[in-house]
User: What shape does this take?
Amino acid sequence: MGINFHISSVREGTIFNVMQFLSLEKVTGILNISFGRHLPESTIYFVTGNVTTAEFGTIVGDAVLDMLLCQEYAIKEVSFAPGRISQLNEQAIIVRASSLSGVMLNVSKDVDKCESRPFIYGMLPMQTNDGRKVDSLLSVMYDFPNWNEFLLAVPRSDNDKGAPLPQCVLLHRALSRSAFTYQVPLVSLKSLRSLLDIVQPLSEKESNNLRGYMRSLLPHPKATHMSIERFYAFASAIESIAQRRSSEVGDKARRAIHLLIQNTTKMSETANV
Assistant: This one.
């Protein structure tokens, strides 16, 4: 019988905790990580509690753990299927350290120093500047050889960002040069400053609630943008606070929210032309 971990609210460290549990139980079998229906799964293989290999399409080995930790908030479910593994993919072997703690420490350092991560949002659908559409950035990573030629054709830039995974370097470059764009309009967190100024000063409770709520709406903790659908939810919370100040402040907040949505939509339409 398998071990199922149903995850409804993923936080940083979830994957490590699950892997640590399986390591302590000295299990042999396959840990499956799901990002949701219609999206490809990632697999991690255990032999008597030792992490041996990891695969996510053509991304294999240590790089898979980097990807999983970076996009941990996108994970919907993990499940473990015990059983003897007949053959391991030698190209997918985890090679960094002999202990799980050592492996995850190295992965955590990689993710922390990644310059591309702030604009890498695994679950968002994407489209190319020549009209092709793909259901998520994770799907591009899974089938990366099919996109490699397209991405390599994007000219290098002084704004290129480093990353532990070469795939993320190319993806960030393509996104920054609009060769790839997210199909969903994105609201920059920097643009929220003027909106937050309307409801200043915030009480300690209001500030803590807003900070926690914003964190729950972001694709991951290092994100610089949120989707416009999630911005609607955040804007509703701002409007509620503004209305409690006065009807005048409430009206001012609504006008600012409307303008921000309008500008974001226009920018998205321009990028996708």
